[in-house]
Amino acid sequence: MDRRQFTGSVAGAFVGAVVSRSPIAPFTASSMRHGGLDANRLNANIKALSAFGANPQGGVSRVAYSDFDRAGRAYVTDLMRAAGLDARVDFAGNIFGRRAGTDAALKPIVFGSHVDSVPDGGNFDGTVGSLSAIEVAQSLAEGRVRTRHPIEVVVWANEEGGLYGSRSVSGQLKAPELDNRTWSGTTVAEGMTFLGGAPSRIDEVRRQHGDIAAYIELHIEQGGTLERDAINIGVVEGIVGIRRWDVTVTGMQNHAGTTPMDQRHDAMLAAARFVDMVNRVVRAEPGRQVGTVGRLEAFPGAPNVIPGRVVCTLELRDVDASKTQRIFDAIAGEAKHVGEANGTTFDFKASHEDAPALSDPAIRAIIDDAAKELKLTTRHMPSGAGHDAQAMAQLGPMGMIFVPSIGGISHSPKEFSTASDIERGARVLMGAVLRADTLA
Amino acid sequence: MDRRQFTGSVAGAFVGAVVSRSPIAPFTASSMRHGGLDANRLNANIKALSAFGANPQGGVSRVAYSDFDRAGRAYVTDLMRAAGLDARVDFAGNIFGRRAGTDAALKPIVFGSHVDSVPDGGNFDGTVGSLSAIEVAQSLAEGRVRTRHPIEVVVWANEEGGLYGSRSVSGQLKAPELDNRTWSGTTVAEGMTFLGGAPSRIDEVRRQHGDIAAYIELHIEQGGTLERDAINIGVVEGIVGIRRWDVTVTGMQNHAGTTPMDQRHDAMLAAARFVDMVNRVVRAEPGRQVGTVGRLEAFPGAPNVIPGRVVCTLELRDVDASKTQRIFDAIAGEAKHVGEANGTTFDFKASHEDAPALSDPAIRAIIDDAAKELKLTTRHMPSGAGHDAQAMAQLGPMGMIFVPSIGGISHSPKEFSTASDIERGARVLMGAVLRADTLA
Q1: B250 touching chain A per CB within 8 A
Q2: Cα(B406)–Cα(B418) distance, rounded to whole angstroms?
Q3: ipTM more than 0.85?
Q4: What's this model's pTM, rounded to 2 decimal places?
C-alpha cells in the first residue's frame, strides 16, 4: 500500500465506503469521526462488562473458561448482535461477528481483542479493544456505512493463558496444548467446549496466510510511557516474543527442627537464590528485556518441613529472540551453580513460546494517519506485552493502537485508562478500519 | 525419686507390679523384657497403619482431621480395645485408653504419641510411639501384669499442626486458635468435632499440674545423630521452643511484559532475598538453632504478572528462648532493608509458639536404666523437634525415648527406622513404664 494514498483530505480515507444516508442518523465523514462513534455508550459498556467477575476489593477475575468468562462473553455477544453483526462461536471458542462487504471478492478486515482477564486483573486489558471494536461496528451500522471488505469483529478466547484462541486460527496451537491446565481449573480442551467450541474440530478454524485483508487491535499500553510523556496514541512497531519455563528445584525434604542448617538440601533456599539471580542476569545488559518469576510453590508446603521440591515459573520477553535465548542460557548456567551450593538440582521445562511479531508498515501508517487526522499525538513503540495480534501477523498485515495506562499499571485491580483516552483510541480504530477498507 | 532404686536386679524394676501367672502366657521378668513384648506384632501394626493415607509414591498424607486421620484413629482405637484398654475420645479429639491400677489413690502413668502426619510425610513419626505404647499395654495385659498406677495410653490429636490435642489437656491452647485453618481444610474446632470431640467443652479436658504421675513418649529421633554414631537410644534432655510467623511481603502487582525491570516493586524478589537472608542470619552464630521458610505463596501467582504480594512462613527453633528472640529481631531488622531496596514492605504476624520444655531428671534416669538393663547404648540429647511431651511437662514429670532415624530423614516419605531399632525403643518404653510404676 502506498502511504500517500491516505494523506490529504479526510474524505480520502473513506473512499472505499458506501455511505447510505438515513434521516435518523445522517452520516458524514465528520459525524463518523466525532459523533458517529458514541464514546459515552462505549465507556458505559466497559463499565457494564466489568461486573462479570468483579472482585469485592476492585478489579476483576474473569479467567478464561470460567463461569464469569462465559457470562461476560454472552453479554458482548448480545452487543455484537445489536450492532448488526452475525455473531458465532468458532470451534476454538472465539466469537466472530461478521458483516458482509460490498465486494464479495475481498478478504475481511478483522478487528477486536479479548475479554478474559488474569486472576485479580483489571477492567481495561482486552476489554477496551473488544468493546471499541463493537462500538465501531455499531456506529458504522447506525451511520449506514457499508464497507467494501467484509468486517469481522473478534473476541478471542483465552488470550491471557497464552493466545489459545488466536493461535488456533493462525495454526500455531499444538495439539498437546489442548491438555494444558488453565486458571479456571479445566484443561484448554474442556474450556473450549465450555464456551461452545469443539476442540476435536480445532483444525477447521485455521486460516491461511492471505485469508485476511488486515488485522487491527486497539489495546491499553500496559506500560507507563505514553502517560508519562503525554502522548495520545501508541503505534505498535512489533510485539515482544515471550518464552516461559516451569522450573523445578529438587532438594531433600526433611524435618525443620532436627536437620542442622549445614546438612540441609533446602529447595526453597535454592529457589530463592534463583529468583534473585534471574533479576540480576536479566538486568546485566542494556535494553528493554524483562524476566519474571510470577508463581512459586514449595512442597510439601508446611512451616515445619524443609521443602524437598519447589516449582516456579520463569518468563522472559524481548523483541529479539536471540537475546532471549542468550539470557536464558546464562540463567540456566548460573542455576547449576546455585544448586551445587546446597545440593539441589534445577530442571527447566519449556511451557510456552510466542515468537516476536512485527506489525505491517502500511497498517502502522494507516493508524498514524488516522490519529493525526484527529490531531492526536503519536509514538511508534514496541509492545512489551503479548497480544492476539502477534498470531494474526501470521495471516496478513497487522497493526495495533495503544492508549495510555495511568501509572503504567496493568494485570492489577489498579489498571486504569481514562474515558477520554479510550474515546481517542476507539476513534483512531474507526479511522484505521475505514482506511484499511480502501486497500485492495 | 531415688535413682539407686532402679540399679541392681531386673526384678527390682517390677517391684510395684502385681503379676498374675497364667498357663497360657506365663509371665516372668525375663519374658516381659524379651518375649512378652511382641516386636513382630508391633512392626506389623505399624505397617498396617501406614495404609491409611498412603501416597502412591510412598510415605503418607494423614493430616489431622482428614478422612484418613479419622480412619487411622479408628484402627488404633480397635487395637487399644483389643489390648484391654477402655478407649475413649476426649473433647479435644485425643484418644485415651485407660486401665485401672491396683492403688486407687495414684495418678496415672501416661504414655503414647500421635498418628497424624505432615502432608507428604513418613510412616514412623508419631506412629512408632503410638503403636509401641499400645503394644506395651497389650503385652502387660497378656502377661497379666497389673500396675499400681492407672496406665493411660494416649494418641494425641493434631500434633503436627501444633500440639492442639496435648495443649488442650495442658491448658495452653488459646480459644482463638480453635479458628485456625488446618491442612485438612477445616478449622481446628471443626476438626475436633469431626474426630468426635466437642470444642465448646474444651475446658473440661484440661488437667492440672500433679494430675499425672509421669508422661513418657517414645519417638523417632528425626535427626541423624544416633544412627551416625551407632547409639541405640536417645534420652531426651529437653525439647526446643518453636516460634512461627506468617510473613507478608507487599509490593506492587503489575504486568510482567510492560513494566521495566527498574520500575518494579516485585514482592517475589523481596521474598526471595528474605529467604536467603534468614538462612544467613540463623547461621551467623554458633549453636543448634534452626530457621526455616517452608511455605511461600505469591499473589496472584501467574507467570505473566509481577507478584504484588507474597505470604510465607518463618519458623525458628532453639532450646534458649532468648536466643530465638535475638535472631528474630535481627531478621526483622534486615527484612526492613530488603524491602527498602525495591519499594516493598514486610509484616510479621506471630502464628504459633511452643516454649522450650525440659524433661524430668528422674524420668531420664528411668529411661537410661531401662536401656542399660537391655544392654543398649544411650545418649542424652536435646530434641530439635516439638512433641506433645512438651505440653505434658506442664502437668508432671516428663521423659522421652528416641530411636534412630536412618539418614536423619523425617517429615518425608523417605523417613525410616529399622524394625530392630523400633523393637529396642518399645522395650525401653516397657521398662520405663514399669519403673515409673514404682514411683509414689
Answers
A1: no
A2: 8
A3: no
A4: 0.70
